[in-house]
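Action item from last meeting closed. Structure (392 res):
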């Protein structure tokens, strides 16, 4: 870790330390360069650090896993553990023998290669946490919040706020590294150029219903390949399929998922947006702003050590609610990119309230600045999203 870089404290730090007091192993999964290594080293500065990206370390772990783990009898931070997932099977024996909490902190950027091994080999012995790039809450606390369009364009990867790097350069390198390393770890895709095209086609569909046949036709691949490649993108924390909510509703509903990206800076790069000012007139402006709110919801729950109970709702007539959060009281969230409130913004919330009279809280998040209350709906500016998520 470069000590000259600006460090922005992470909300997940508290949950990470708490997990290490309760479990012998804590795993932190998340996209490449989201800050997993820095977080682990900040939380446990006295623990020895080993990266399995290092060829010598990786060969040692693969060829002699017992010897590798015996080298670190007091525990360690093992970075990029997806490079040697079989190591976790041997780790079970060591943690059972030592019977100590907080022995190993493992990090990884690929759920597909790690999560199954974690649940199989370390069931009951591991706490599984997820870290996405910086949240709006973390940037506000560090007093590093840029304007809305600048922030959406720049994205949230810590390195962009720690060093003077241009966003487009960072993300072009990020995509190349991701495709060359992570994709090939999961599946031997022969045509990486076609996969890159697929990635950009997904970006053009952010916030929209997923049509597998349309995506297959536009990319020149089969539907089965679309499903396989979407799984790769999900498991390496590039995008997520968000599924519809249909509980206790008898109307004809849309059952296709939507797709959202985990970082708006990466999304903007894939959409060939060259500068923040271009967002104001971009054809997908509303969907990009909606994607930003999606990432904040996901980060809020991940930072509490939870998965977001997040859905959307849409019926066959075209009425739609952007986000539904389902704890004990349903939270209904509509998102509008406009800066000036319009009564028409509440059309879908009012309709949903009529057909679903159960107790719930309604919110409209928009890019304006004024706070209002209309017909039991709280209208809030984008920077107050965390208040919505924290409300009990």
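Sequence:
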């Amino acid at each position: 870790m470069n000590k000259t870089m600006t460090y922005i404290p992470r909300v997940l730090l508290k949950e990470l330390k708490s997990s290490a007091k309760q479990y012998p192993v804590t795993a932190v999964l998340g996209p490449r360069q989201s800050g997993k290594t820095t977080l682990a080293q900040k939380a446990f500065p006295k623990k020895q650090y080993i990266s399995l990206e290092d060829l010598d370390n990786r060969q040692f772990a693969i060829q002699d896993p017992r010897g590798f783990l015996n080298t670190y009898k007091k525990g360690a931070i093992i970075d990029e553990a997806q490079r040697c997932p079989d190591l976790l099977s041997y780790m079970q024996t060591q943690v059972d023998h030592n019977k100590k909490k907080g022995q190993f902190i493992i990090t990884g950027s690929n759920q597909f290669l790690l999560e199954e091994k974690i649940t199989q080999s370390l069931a009951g012995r591991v706490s599984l946490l997820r870290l996405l790039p910086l949240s709006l809450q973390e940037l506000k606390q560090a007093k590093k919040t840029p304007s809305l369009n600048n922030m959406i364009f720049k994205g949230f990867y810590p390195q962009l706020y720690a060093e003077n790097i241009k966003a487009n350069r960072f993300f072009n390198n990020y995509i190349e590294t991701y495709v060359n390393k992570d994709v090939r770890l999961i599946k031997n895709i022969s045509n990486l150029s076609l996969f890159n095209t697929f990635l950009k086609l997904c970006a053009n569909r952010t916030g929209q219903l997923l049509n597998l046949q349309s995506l297959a036709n536009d990319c020149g691949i089969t539907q089965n390949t679309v499903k396989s490649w979407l799984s790769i993108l999900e498991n390496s924390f590039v995008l997520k399929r968000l599924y519809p909510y249909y509980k206790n509703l008898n109307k004809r509903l849309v059952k296709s998922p939507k797709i959202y990206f985990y970082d708006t800076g990466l999304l903007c790069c894939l959409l060939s947006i060259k500068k923040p000012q271009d967002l104001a007139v971009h054809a997908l402006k509303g969907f990009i702003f909606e994607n930003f709110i999606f990432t904040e919801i996901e980060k809020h729950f991940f930072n509490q050590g939870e998965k977001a109970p997040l859905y959307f709702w849409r019926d066959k007539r075209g009425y739609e609610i952007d986000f539904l959060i389902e704890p004990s009281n349903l939270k209904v969230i509509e998102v509008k990119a406009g800066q000036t409130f319009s009564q028409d913004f509440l059309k879908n919330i009012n309709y949903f309230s009529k057909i679903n009279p159960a107790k719930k809280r309604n919110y409209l998040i928009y890019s304006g600045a004024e706070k209002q209350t209309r017909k039991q709906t709280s209208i809030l500016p984008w920077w107050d999203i965390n208040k919505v998520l924290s409300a009990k």
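Note appended to the action item: Residues 167-186 form the longest helix (20 residues).
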